[in-house]
Every structure is written in structure tokens, then in C-alpha cells.
Design brief:
Blueprint (H helix, E strand, L loop, with lengths): L4 E7 L3 H12 L4 E4 L43 H14 L4 E2 L6 E5 L4 E5 L4 E9 L21 E4 L13 E5 L3 H10 L4 E6 L12 H13 L12 H6 L11 H8 L5 E3 L3 E2 L3 E3 L5 E3 L2 E4 L24 E2 L2 E2 L5 E3 L13 H22 L1
Parallel strand pairs: 1-2, 1-6, 2-3, 6-17, 7-14, 8-9, 8-14, 9-10
Antiparallel strand pairs: 4-5, 5-6, 11-12, 12-13, 15-16
Helix pairs in contact: 1-7, 3-6
Bound molecules: flavin-adenine dinucleotide.
Length: 365
Amino acid sequence: MSTKIFDVIVIGGGQAGLAVGYYLRRAELDFIILDNQQQSGGAWRHTWPSLRLFSPAWMSSLPGRLMPQSKEGKNPHRDEVLSYLADYEQHYKLPIYRPYDVQSVERDDQNDCLRVSDGRYTWLANAVVSATGTWNNYYIPDIQGRQDYLGEQRHSAHYQGPEAYKGKRVLVIGGGNSGAQIYAELVQFADASWVTREPPQFLPDDVDGRALFDRATARITGQYNSDSADEDNSDKHRLVDINVGNIVMVPAVKKARDKGLLTTLPMFSRLTQQGVVWSDGRKESIDAIIWCTGFEPELEHLAPLGVIEEDGSILNKQGQALKEPRLWLFGYGNWASPASATLIGAGRSARENVPVLLEFLSNNN
Ligand code: FAD
């Protein structure tokens, strides 16, 4: 009896998996996409209801199909992104199977391929694309007293809007875009403070998420550094001053600033059962803490391959793992491909790296 071996198995059916699927479909490869969610949309399905993209639709599209213009304003709403992703996978008839939660990827020496398993079923493939994102692996710093604190603690990954915090004393922790947006929304309802380690860096009002994408790309490709910036080109020059963590002035954040509410407190020194101890020794009771402290790549299923480095990343060239050339990485962030954790970056890295994957397959099978 012959054993079925797919050309490619993609793990993860978020935007990165869809963008890869688009190019695999075009190349007429035999592939499937396994996703552990009940429905389409990846991490977008879990973001808070009021979330808007920090770029317009045309800058947030996957390959082949433009995201429709937002009905509600300049930048699309979270639900519009969800509709777009659902439509995208149907339009291109991508072979996505849900819910399959992949537990492991291992070498299958007998069949000279990789073996993917969800604990119930196994699948074989000549190449595996891991596009599992970061949403399932959120990060909370190990602050003294965190285990003792009895109030509510929630990561931004599970924040579902301000209503539950009405009238409460709440700390929003983290100086990035999530912290800014959640604080700007909460401060209208609750007695909220925004706590950051460093003072946040705000972008000018007219600069949106495109600049972050360009900057991430430029940083990786070495373009636009201060030595090479063209004195006569103001756009290029501006990019030099923009960091990927800078805060985009979306409408809610602007509104809070215009009301004089966009202020921060420096980090407290520890947590107690009831609240926090500020750095000057003052104690304060706090009802709830929302940690906007980021995410790490979701790579546990790749542990059997021995490819995960101490810093949690995987060494790769154009997405191909150096320690296991049949393994490919899409999404995750700059270490996998410039700005690949954004919608436009997911499309670009698929456009650039899937042809290398196709070449690898044709040379090795
Ligand atoms: P995901 O969307 O997380 O998709 C991965 C999929 O794989 C998920 O369905 C996951 O459940 C599944 N999976 C995980 N592990 C397994 C497993 N073992 N087996 C099977 N399936 C698995 N980007 C922009 O371009 N513009 C923005 O304005 C923007 N705003 C953002 C705001 C917030 C608050 C956040 C958190 C992110 C924002 N992003 C934005 C970033 C980015 O677009 C998303 O994080 C994006 O969802 C990442 O896509 P992905 O496909 O790599 O991962």
C-alpha cells in the first residue's frame, strides 16, 4: 500500500497561511492547510471589538485580492478584516481543514519526509510551512508579587472592550500600540492609568501603519539608514526616525490626546494582594490590570525537530529553516521575514519566499 505524501502541509490558517496557500494553489501543488480554530480569521477573531487597522485597506491586502474599502472610515474595522479573510479563503478555494491542532512535526526517515500529527491523525509532507502566529503565546513579564495579586489580570490578547471596567481603577501596562489603543478607550469609562517602562514614542498624526511596514523592511534590507538618506527626499528622511514600536495616532488615541488624557506613569516596583507599590513607596489599590506586553512565536509543535534557538526563534534564510531545510516559516515577525506579521508583509514574504520553496521541492523530489 502506498503512503500519501503531500507536497506541502501548511500549519496555521491565518493571514500568513492564506498568503502561502495562494501561491501554492497557483503552482498547482498538492497541499493542505491545518488550522486549530473553529472559523477563519486567525488572531483577528480574538482582537477587541473596536479595533481598527492602522493602515487603509489597499495597504492591508493579501496577494491577488484587494481588501474592500472600509464602510466606516479611513481604516478597516476588525470585522471587515474578518470578512475579507473569510472571503479570501473561499474565493481561492484554499484546502483548509479545521479544527486540527497540530501537536508535533517530526522527521520520518522511512518515507524521507516530515510527519505532522495532531495526536489523533498523522499526515506526511515533503515540506512543512509553519504559520502559527503568536496570538496563542502571549507574554507577561515576571513582576514581583504577580502571583499574589488578587485583582483581575488580563492580557490584551483577551481584552474584549471597556464596558466591564466602568468606574474601576485599572492599570494598562505597556508602551506599544495595543497599550495606547486600549488605554485610550478605557480612560473614557474607567479610572485608568497607562503605565510604561519608557516614555511612549508617538508618530506624527499624518503617518500611519505604512511607515512602520516600510521601516521594518528598510531595517532588514539596510536601506534608508542615516548615511544614505537622500537629503532631497523628505519621505525617505522621515523613515529614519520611525521605529517599528512607535504609536500610530489612530482616532481613539488622538481623541484621548486632544482631551489631555494621554499621559503615562512610570512602572511600579511590585504587586501586592490588593494592588501596586509605586517606585516612591506609595501603595495603591487596583481593581484590574491589563498587560499589553506583547507576544512570542507559537512554535511548540516544532520542538521535536530541534530547530528552536534559545531566544525562541528559528534560524532561517528566506523562511527556510537552516537546521531542517524541509521546514519553512511564514508570519511571526522580522526574524522570519521583514514585517511578516502584518497583512501586507505576509503577502510580500509569501510572494518572495514561496518561489524558493517551489525550487527546493523540484530539486529534491
Ligand atoms: P495568526 O493570525 O495568529 O494565524 C495563525 C493561525 O494558526 C491561527 O488560526 C492559530 O490559531 C493557528 N495555530 C496556531 N498554532 C497551531 C497549531 N499548533 N496547529 C494548528 N493551527 C495552529 N497588522 C496589520 O497589518 N495592520 C494592523 O493594523 C494590525 N493591527 C494589529 C493590532 C493588534 C492588537 C494585534 C495583536 C495585531 C495587529 N496586527 C496588524 C498584526 C498582525 O496582522 C496579526 O497579528 C496577524 O493576525 C498575524 O497573522 P498570522 O497568520 O501570522 O498569525
